[in-house]
Amino acid sequence: MPGKLIPARCLKILLPALALTSILLPAAAIPARAQTETILYAFPNCNFACSPDAGVALDKKGNLYGITSPYGIFSLTPSGTFTHIGLPESAFAPFGGLILDSKGNVYSTTFYGGSSDYGTVFEMSPTKTGWTGTVLYNFTNGLDGGSPGAGVVRDSKGNLYSTTQYGGEFGAGTVFEVSPSGTEKVIYSFLENPEVGYYPEVGVVRDSKGNLYGTTLHGGTSNMGAVYKVTPAGTATILHSFTANGEDGFHPAAGVILDSKDNLYGTTTLGGAVGAGTVFKLSRTETETILHSFTGGADGIFPQAALILDKNGNLYGTTEYGGSFDLGTVFELTPTGMETVLHSFANDGTDGIYPLAGVAIDTAGNLYGTTVEGGGGNCEGGCGVVFKIVP
Question: Cα(260)–Cα(249) distance, rounded to whole angstroms?
Fold first, then answer.
């Protein structure tokens, strides 16, 4: 197994110069609909939190919850009151997103920490006087897996599901389940084999039958990344292997999402028409459709985050670079593939720059997200922001 490295997407992937210079086609500016971006919070320093590289989650009252590494969970009220919530005492370096249950408990993973320093699954619970943290599971990097770099999903019984980047039967990562009582079960162990995915850096989504779906940055028949499915019984299937053929995307740095018909949607960091990344759809029959190929200009470049769907089937996401100032975008994509840039981030001293995570959406269609830099503060390049976009 390779040295234990922080997931690439959490270090702000610096793509090779060759990939940048291969993008030759200029992009015309895509008109944005009337919309307003508001900076809800600009991180002032790194005393408690800064440079959020994961997205945010909303509770029923409109409070936002996010995560920064190594500082842990934070909350932000609709009026902008910031609270540093932290982590359980032994947990360290959360790189994935978080989820909330109906009682306001927060769940995620850490890449390091725990009894063996190979990461944890943890819960943070609100109390009358603050928050209390519980480590639900400590990874050992043995058969149980090690170093989870992604957040979790939760079923109706409270079981949590995700991946570890290392460990498992073959040392190439796992798909796992952790019960509410803290019992872990490995559902699938990845093989370090170029014909399948391995070392999963991102998490999974779960359908109504308990099947789990995810991506790997590498692997597949061309070693350019893959979309996989794992059944509750632990049978793994490669649904799509990406190819660097000038049309297909490759190297997906984010996971996939499901619609009501079990179609999958995701992004690739590279590939497509000019090598600037894609948004793709994978049908139930495993037919891939490229919904959008980024051109490397005003429409964005190098998407690294997962997408979200609204009730009308529109997709929303971010690109880390590109846009009017080459500092990242928030975009919308209709079901037919028409893209609109909702916001281009600008290094104007207040706006954030470089959105590494995706966005969340509320019932009114407002979008919320984070950037790893910008917004001012005493960090070089800015300490990052939490933003809101009102269409």
Answer: 24
Q: Which residues contact 4 (CB under 8 A, 6 or more apart)?
A: 146, 147, 166
Q: What is the Cα–Cα distance from 165 to 124, expressed in whole angstroms?
A: 23
Number of domains in the chain: 1
284 domain residue, yes or no: no
Tens of pLDDT, residue by residue over 42-81, are 999 999 899 999 999 999 999 999 999 999 999 999 999 9
Beta carbons within 8 Å of 325's beta carbon, 6+ residues apart: 344, 345, 346, 347
The whole-angstrom distance between residue 152's C-alpha and the CA centroid of its chain comes to: 11
**What's the burial of 83, exposed, middle or buried (CB within 10 Å: 0-12/13-18/19+)?**
middle
The two structure tokens encoding residue 194:
């170029």
At 21 the three-state DSSP class reads helix
Q: Is 370 part of any domain?
A: no
The two structure tokens encoding residue 239: 């649904």
Q: Which domain holds residue 154?
A: 81-241
The model carries a pTM of 0.92
How many percent of the chain have pLDDT more than 70? Answer: 91
388 inside domain: no
CATH of the domain at 153: 2.120.10.30
